[in-house]
Design goal:
single chain, 128 residues, alpha+beta, four-stranded antiparallel sheet, two-stranded antiparallel sheet, 4 helices, 29% strand, DUF3298 domain-containing protein
Length: 128
Amino acid sequence: MLIKVITILAHPHHLFFTINIDLNIGNQLFLTDFVSKIDKDFITILKNSKYVGDLENEFEQQIREQAFGHYKSNEELSLVLSNNKECKNGSYVYVTENVLGISMPVAHVTGGHVEFEIDFSELKEPPL
């Protein structure tokens, strides 16, 4: 299930939350349920994945720098994504028929969050 909440305030916030549910057993699913190893190979795929957003393509490099630049290393990003069951870091996951989507926090000026999508065919192993 994809839930997008937009709140209009003096300084608008675009909040993005997702909840993935296994409809067969009712359990909540997380990134680690779709990707068996969140390792350097996965981080490389993520960093090169399709940007999905409202900003012009000419700003895509700056958006990527915002999303990934505040992590000291790929290992830190991998650890954050691996331990995201409490959703404390603002990163969320959604799935469609063919795509794994990851929403990551960015500065307010760039929309508060940014989305990247990875086609399941790009992953080493099919989703679990």
